[in-house]
Amino acid sequence: MKPTVLLLMPTTTYRAADFVAAGLRTGVRVVVGSEEKQTLEEVVPGGTVTLDFRDLEAACRKIVAFAREHPLKAVVGVEDETTVLAAMASEALGLPHNPVESVRATRDKHRMREILRAAHVPVPQFLRCSVAEDPMETARRVAYPCVLKPLFLSASRGVIRADRPEEFVAAFLRVKTLLSLPEVARKGGESARWILAESYIPGSEVALEGLLVGGALRELALFDKPEPLEGPFFEETIYVTPSRLPRAVRREIFACAARTASALGLREGPIHAELRINAEGVWPLEVAARSIGGLCSRTLRFGAGVSLEELILRHALGTNLNFLGRERRAAGVMMIPIPGAGILTEFGGVQEAREVAGIQEVTQSIPLGQPVTPLPEGSRYLGFIFAKAASPAAVEEALRRAHRCLRIVIAPRSAGEE
């Protein structure tokens, strides 16, 4: 009988198809736990269980009951919303897992900063502010430049830089409005009542994809982010691996990521870490107890064509991964930026973009006729461009050339249109 793996993923995930395909290649039975069975039933016919991700205790009990009838070999949280539940369920079932409180800390930026500061990991000055506070009063208590952000959102959503008190007030009110949106408030719960203000960390930014095995961190890929991320918003666009930074700096980045994961108490499974590098050293911005988001994992292949999702499942099943190193070719992805708010009316030039040397694929994520919202309020990408080449520089150039081929038209919304 095939071992059964429960994948916990919200219906908004980009990664259902990739994880299910990885399950087929790994030879496991995949069951998807999601908040809406019918949405993912087409991807995994007969292989879904409906869970309320807002009620973790009830969802955990339902998973344990499910496991009595269908013994589980592993429970994997695919997106941020499901990582805590995955740890809780794994603990209840006696499966390898991260400590629940450690995963909770990765979902609360303020708590993460407190833990890292106590462990003497470099962190900026930070202050947790209630959304009920008077922002003009709070603006006098922070040093500038600073960054305001929600405690629980990812992909730079709601992250705004302020260089002066009046910018702080405007940013505070904007984040507060975002946190009041019903879908955001439901997702955040108590965390939606707070805003984190912290000093701005200058420097270049990288993302480290890693896998923890018994507390030891294994680096899977280090991505450069060649676009400057200086604000006022922090829309991520291009990721390229391997990193072009000097070897000594790369070693320092890995050491900082490992130290950060250890300080948080993380021990098993994938991590996605965002870090900044400047003259003072390496600073961890975020560490998530899950793998890279969106469709970005498609840039990575290990061994003889093994995907990141397959590698994660193999680790969850206890398979030895020592022979799986990343392929030698440079690779990268562009998360196609949204130039403005409105209705997407044209997504053209795709074939021309695909014909650029080095381009592997161009995908569209939002259908024509649908509303689009840029950062800091937005949470979706227009699409993704993937490239591989002999060098990181060639990958970056291919991504930029392909993006210039695209014709993206966003029309203003009609008066009163939602």
What key attributes describe this structure?
Dna Ligase, domain 1, alpha+beta, Rossmann fold, Aldehyde Oxidoreductase, domain 3, 418 residues, 32% helix, four-stranded antiparallel beta sheet
How would you sum up this structure, described in words?
With 418 residues, this protein is α+β, with helices and mostly antiparallel strands. Among the domains are: 4-98, Rossmann fold (3-Layer(aba) Sandwich), CATH 3.40.50.20; 125-199, ATP-grasp fold, A domain (Dna Ligase, domain 1); 330-418, Aldehyde oxidase/xanthine dehydrogenase, a/b hammerhead (Aldehyde Oxidoreductase, domain 3). The protein has helices at residues 16-26, 37-40, 56-69, 80-93, 100-106, 109-118, 135-139, 165-180, 182-188, 247-264, 308-316, 350-354, 392-405, and strands spanning 4-8, 29-34, 48-50, 72-77, 126-130, 146-150, 160-162, 194-199, 204-213, 216-224, 238-241, 269-278, 281-288, 301-302, 306-307, 330-335, 342-348, 359-364, 371-372, 383-389, 407-411. The strands form 6 sheets. A 4-stranded parallel beta sheet has the order 3-2-1-4, with helices on both faces. It has a 4-stranded antiparallel beta sheet with strand order 5-8-6-7, sandwiched between helices. α1 crosses α11 (308-316), α3 (56-69) packs across α4 (80-93) and α4 (80-93) runs antiparallel to α5. The longest helix has 18 residues, at 247-264. The chain is globular, with a radius of gyration of 21 Å. It starts with a strand and ends in a 7-residue tail after the last strand.
